[in-house]
Amino acid sequence: MTRGRPAEDLRDTALAEVELTHGLARTWQTPSGFWGALATVDHKIIGRRYIATAFVFLALGGVLALLMRWQLARPESRILSPDLYNQVFTIHGTNMMFLFAVPVMEAMAVYLVPLMVGTRNIAVPRLNAFSYWMYLVGGVLLWVAFVLDMGPDVGWFAYVPLAGPQYGAGKRADIWAQMITFTEISALAVAVEIVVTVLKQRAPGMSLDRIPLFVWSMLVTSFIIILAMPAVMVASTSLILDRLVGTHFFNPAEGGDVLLWQHLFWFFGHPEVYIIFLPAVGMISSILPTFTRRPIFGYLPLVLALVGTGILAFGLWVHHMFTTGLPRVGESFFTASSMAIAVPSGIQIFCWLATIWYGRPVLKTPMLFILAFLFTFVIGGLTGVMVASVPLDTQVHDTYFVVAHFHYVLVGGAVFPLLGGVYYWFPKITGRMMSERIGRWVVGLLLAGFNLTFFPMHILGLQGMTRRIYTYQADMGWGGMNLFVSLSSLVLATGFLLFFIDAFRSARHGAPAGDNPWGAATLEWATSSPPPPYNFVRIPVVESASPLWDSPDALPVATGLRMDRRELLVSTVADAVPEARESSPGNSIWPLWAAAATTILLIASIFTPWAVVWGAIPVTIALIGWFWPKGTPEDES
Amino acid sequence: MITLAALRGLLPMAGLVAGPAAWALNTQLGQILPYAECGGWFRPSLVFSVAAMMLSLAGAYLSWRTRGEGTVGFGGRLGALLGLLFAFALLLQGLSTLILSGCDR
Fold first, then answer.
1. Which domain holds residue A416?
2. pLDDT in tens, A308-347
3. Total domain count for chain A?
4. DSSP code of residue A408
5. pLDDT digits over B27-78, tens only?
6. Which of A271, A456, B26, B87 is most solvent-facing, going by the fewest CB within 10 Å?
7. Interval A57-76: pLDDT, tens
8. Is it the case that residue A4 has pLDDT exceeding 60?
9. Helix (H) or strand (E) holding A412
10. Cβ contact A337–B89 (<8 Å)
11. Helix (H, G, I), strand (E, B) or coil at A10
12. pLDDT tens track for A392-448
């Protein structure tokens, strides 16, 4: 069955350019209208939604941060009640980690990875659509609960026994635990898609040593997600079982173990840091060559750093538990690994410095963000080595020193590169440039605002100010520094506000970008801006790690794919030698229905365990509908 | 049946597999052995750390030997460097057993 003329040869080899372009557009398009928008499986549309939603959560989380700074600006303030403050800091942390930082990195990958590896859609694209709906519902669940005064109040890591049935009254901790389920399902789904896309859908010739470093970083990150996130899902599910059906996983009185929670959580929680950080460094390694006008220095050491960091990330989790009374020798093994992971981070820093040193730096906004990152992340890395040491960590544990440290690593180490990435890839996504003039203001305000806000927190921590306190007495002597921090946070907020204004304005009124406005070398710039639904008219063939620089006139292309159905090229893992033509599923509303059915099951199971039984019926129906053959050309295989 | 040629094809992976595996095992042993070591003169955690480091270095060496062109050479060099990185982590773990006793809490 075909949509066009079945008797003709409808492969791209036999068609003229115009006919091919029209045919591909017809085959890969997302129908206009409401249902078309809901049913799309185009990775670019879903990626844009993911990115926009994640930035909405960033803005919401930022408002909560400002609320906390308003409260802490002076001693014995009564702007927020202790209960509300508990909800605010919990939701700030939960939101930023689970609804912004991880999803936004995956979102960038959902949009960019298929383009960077030269394929027409992400692998398992309906799962991609499903993952977005699950993520959206998880986020809405958290924020609706907050508005209804049911917001979690147990910290972003929800330690037991505070989050357990004995102390965590009501449904607040359950909301947290089930929000975890939503976002982890979503993250795991995307991770699987990225792994398959990178390993099996690369353009011919894109061997392992020619993969763009952002793609490498997302491959490593996806494996970390697949290995780390089940731990927190097991933990949060066990917590719900303790709270709802009276199991005793975390109840020492009945043979459970409180510390089990911390082990499970941090076995996920520390790799989580690298789930956020590695995509950011991948962005830097992909952006930097463009603005230094030379290939990256040390491709192999940079891949080593990504892979090494990704593995070592799993041997660091106990450094969050140094004060729990574990044997010192055992703890010191985690100190050793925490010190060792500084090596790949250092390798990356030196490779980037060498790239800048040997290149001809062009100080556009994305490059300025990279410079801001280098300055900020090095400070965060140094304090990271400090808190990896048991004696120092014991002194500063649960103080603002740690708050300062992880904001330096996460904001300096991940958000700055991310914003640089947004300025860099915005032209590809929208077809329009962001403002260079406003961008420079954004970098300046964010760099100054961030350091003025968070550097004094090191000192506050060393002075003994503990985390999560909703107020403090005047005679503690922290008032002046806290007021300074709160005022500085307004500078930081202004920077973010300006960024959002620039993004909104540029999306409508920015200067037209053209296909490759920065003169970059990787494949996403080989197609139009924004890319057509099929990404590439013909699949590019790669002959080096910088294909657009090494083949400046025209890329060689692979031909033979059909036009009348969604078809991809599948290639070998190591050398990306073409193996087969494979169909790619078309648009479908069933991922949305499956997500709706799963939502009913998960939310109802906060209130009754029977929801798992009865809720499984609509989930099963939705999955049957999803996989039932629809008689489309893509069903042929 | 696994042939010699097939095994040789896996050599670039030696550092990638041996280093992380030895390190993961030693990290787990580091949580278990202190309880057995407390009060005794024999320090198995030191012995295991040294053995794991040697295993990681052996993996690095095997990977390095396969250096060549293309993705095989790339994999070999990557495996060799990873073996060295994990040998360094294991060296630090071994050193920590010289400083602390199993009884320290």
1. 12-635
2. 999 999 999 999 999 998 888 889 999 999 999 999 999 9
3. 1
4. I
5. 999 988 888 888 777 888 999 999 999 999 999 999 999 877 889 899 999 9
6. A456
7. 999 999 999 999 999 999 99
8. no
9. none
10. yes
11. coil
12. 999 999 999 999 999 999 999 999 999 999 999 999 999 999 999 999 999 999 999
Q: How far is A302 from chain B (nearest CA, A)?
A: 10
- Smallest CA-to-CA distance from A410 within A87, A47, A92 is with A92
Specify if A5 maps to a domain: no
Q: How far apart are CA A193 and CA A188, in angstroms?
A: 9
- Of the spans A7-11, A498-502, A578-582, B12-16, which averages the highest pLDDT? A498-502
For residue A637, what pLDDT is reported? 62
pLDDT at site A9? 63
Tell me whether residue A409 is in a domain: yes
CATH of the domain at A99: 1.20.210.10
Q: Cβ of B31 and A575 within 8 Å?
A: no
Q: Which residues of A touch B105 (CB under 8 A)?
A: 325-328
Q: Do A300 and B78 touch (CB under 8 A)?
A: yes
pLDDT of residue A5: 45
Q: How far is B101 from chain A (nearest CA, A)?
A: 7
Integer angstrom CA distances of residue A39 from A137, A566, A621, A626 = 17, 16, 18, 12
For residue B99, which residues of chain A lie inside 8 Å, CB to CB?
332
């073996």: which residue's tokens? B83
Q: What percent of chain A has pLDDT over 90?
A: 91
| Cα separation, A28 vs A39, whole angstroms | 13
| Chain A residues in contact with B75 (beta carbon < 8 A) | 208, 574
Model confidence at A1: pLDDT above 60: no
Residue pair A621/A590 in contact by the 8 Å Cβ criterion: no
Closest CA to A436 of A365, A372, A502, A509: A365
Q: Which B positions 31-50 lie with beta carbon below 8 A of chain A?
A: 31, 33-35, 37, 45
Which helix (H) or strand (E) is A622 found in, with range?
helix A610-627
Alpha-helix runs per DSSP H in A463-520: 479-509
Task: Assess contact for A506 and A430: CB atoms under 8 A.
Answer: yes
Residues in B touching A339 (Cβ below 8 Å): 92
Q: Give yes or no for B105 touching A (CB within 8 A).
A: yes
Please state, rounded to an integer, the average pLDDT across all residues of chain A.
94
Q: Is the peptide bond before A161 cis (omega within 30 degrees of 0)?
A: yes
Helices A213-244 and A172-200: crossing angle, nearest 10°? 150
Q: What share of chain B is helix, strand, coil (3-state, %, to 5)?
A: 80, 0, 20
pLDDT digits (tens, 9 = 90+) for A554-589: 889 998 898 889 999 999 999 999 999 999 999 999
* HSE-up of residue A473 (Cα within 13 Å, Cβ side): 2
Does the residue A6 lie in any domain? no
With CB atoms and an 8 Å threshold, state whether B71 touches A330: no
Residue A308's closest chain B neighbor by CA? B82
Mean pLDDT of chain B: 89
Cα separation, A470 vs A272, in Å, equals: 27
Task: Please state, in angstroms and rounded to a whole number, the distance separating the CA atoms of residues A614 and A177.
Answer: 20
Of A4-13, A219-228, A364-373, B80-89, minimum mean pLDDT range: A4-13
Of A325, A327, A343, the CB nearest to B88: A343
Contacts of A329 in chain B (CB under 8 A): 30, 33-34, 37, 45, 96-97, 100-102, 104
- Is the residue at A3 inside a domain? no
Burial of A5 (0-12, 13-18, 19+ CB in 10 A): exposed
